[in-house]
Task: structure prediction
Amino acid sequence: MILFWVALLAISIVIYLLLDGFDLGIGMLFGLAGSAADRDTMLNTVAPVWDGNETWLAVAGVILWGAFPVVYATLLSAFYLPVIIMLLGLILRGVAFEFRHRAARQFRWIWDVSFVGGSFAASFMQGVTVGALVQGLEFTDGVYVGGMFGWLSPFSLLCGIGLCLGYALLGATWLVQKCESDVRDMARRQIPALALAVLAFLIAVFAHALITNLPIMHRWLDRPYLFVFPAIGAMAAVVLASSILHHNDRWPFAAVAIIFGAAFGTLALSFWPYMIPFAITIDEAAAPHSSLAFMFWGEGLFIFPLMLLYVAIGYRVFRGKVGTTPGHS
Amino acid sequence: MDATALLLSRIQFGFTISFHIIFPAFTIGLAAWLTVLEAMHMRTGRPVYQALFEFWLKIFGVAFGMGVVSGVVMGFQFGTNWSVLSKMSGPIQGPLLSYETFTAFMLEASFFGVLVFGRKRVPPWFYLFSTAMVSLGTTLSAFWIMTNNSWMQVPVGYVIQNGYFVPDDWTKIIFNSVVWSRFPHMLLAAYLTGAFCVAATGAWYVLRGDYYAESRVMLRMGLFLAALLIPIQLVFGHLVGDYVHEHQPAKFAAIEGRWHDEQPASEVLIGLPDPATESNRYEVKVPLLGSIIASMSLTSKEVGLADFAPQDRPPVLIPFVTFRIMVGCGLIMLAIAWLGSYLSIKRRLRRNRPMLWATFISFPLPFIAILTGWYVAEVGRQPWAIYGLLRTADAVTPFLTAPAAMTSLVLFGAVYLFIFSFGTFYIYRLLRAGPTRLAVASSHGASPNRPMSLADPEFIRSGYTSAGE
Result:
């Protein structure tokens, strides 16, 4: 039962990373678009699905609360300011979808700014929290004692920038898949730069982990099989490079998605069996059986597959390239 | 624990939840109304239903967006500010709210995209189905939220183990009379909100002498529905009062403004409760009525606040005043709905301008009633977060500092004020502009022929909606 909920939590987080990842990434690239028409096209690639994408954050959040309440309570309170700023970012970018085309043309920039700024704030703060987790929060006897700014470090800020770059890369590959002409060409030009930046970031992270001798490094040395995931990531990077060179529209997104999956797998397995490294294990954090079973027999067994089905239907209804001008969808 | 951080957290929770509830209150009713309109259009083919559907869908879109983003905040705020509560009651509240996200959030989010962008991409039956699914989603969401909140009001079906509230009987938690009086009470409140907003819009157009067919449908459907539902709502309101009387005597005494035990009890209609003297100033009382309302008896003894130690009493003024505002709004709404429906049946409503004005300006009433109703429930529950088990003061994140709580409160205040101002302004502008004219709407197609131009505010959506035009 516990493993089932760990698996569902992991799946939800990966789906969130991939779906809201491209969504937030497009938000950050939005400011770089050349023309108003390009911006409209970019928005059209995510407008029908952003709401569902963001919902996976809520899904991951409530699974965490229901199945691992200690982790939910500890992480959210320890990451107080990053979580609040992330939520405010998501609010500002979320309402921009609807408000932007309700606004008079001369005020549309307000929502363009809030869309870009909100996307940046949310992505950055998510990266910061992941970075702080990797670096390790301060615990005494399973109770967080790091205070309001325990998450703040050069490393966590670096991870914030890294995730922004990663999401932007994912967003650019989504644009290549969903768009034609101008927007696609722009995204194709951005991908190599973003990919190199992400690579540089990963090297910096490894260097930092080595130099400061992070506890997580020992786990990699103890568990050499963990290098399977970086290897998969590296292969996906090769696919990305070749698909960009050959002007393939479909593979870049898949390749970056695999890189994201590999990165998540690396982290998750190097934390294992800890949920908050290295303070609270999965078994310690798990809710009582009666809670897990109640969730399992309803939402786990039936509704979760159904949710995947809705998402599939949603993406199927809006499949294909998005038109650049009215009348050609 | 930092007392200022506690106070700021409470203000923040109250502020963000008050802001949030306005939008679901509006969209639950609107989603149901949209489903009815779409079904009527499919059945009758009358273009007026389609014009109204397209019109209200735009308003729904703006309100729904604000509801979604402010709702995500709620799901995380338990953890950020109330970590002790969310840890201890996580085994019960976590699963309940996870069912909310799984059954409702996802349903709404997925089919909302189809609703707004998919008109031309899916067959008509699937479009109607999507509308119904959005409506079902909003309703399920309300159900799980009410189940969760009812457990905090009247905790049942649990045992305490190692400082956790561990569920031992989920049927008690979900199928108890508290949930099943409070959930209908909230759902009816949401339907009434939708009905009054629709009727008020209809009245506005009649006053302007515009949109004859649309205003007729809106006025009639809105007022008739309200006239039918308000009496039912009063019954459920009474049932909610019964649970408070049975399970939360201190809250009941605060609502009633009853300081000392009385037998038989009188009912304080108005007054100003004064905790210092433990009495009401300027009070107007009706003898016996207190016992009748509370226990359906002429002789019952009713409990006063002085029976509870001062640290176990809720603040009196807020529940006392907000309860009276809620009931007052309900009674005014009843009068408007019944009189308006009567005039409408007699075909005299359209010429009766005072009545049209009354209907028009009545739209804030259901919102005020919902907000004040929640203040009665939540402030009246104090000093408890989980009634009788966990005090609010012990539920807050222990290491939260006042500056951090202040920062988040100020940020929430600024951002919410910003989006709320624009959101209401955009909704107002949509309402003022009115539905697409029937003359342009096609009567048999699945979508109106909107004139397309780059200046059209719908331009952005046209990438999806304009296929084949």
Q: What stands out?
A: Chain B touches chain A through 83 residues (CB under 8 Å).
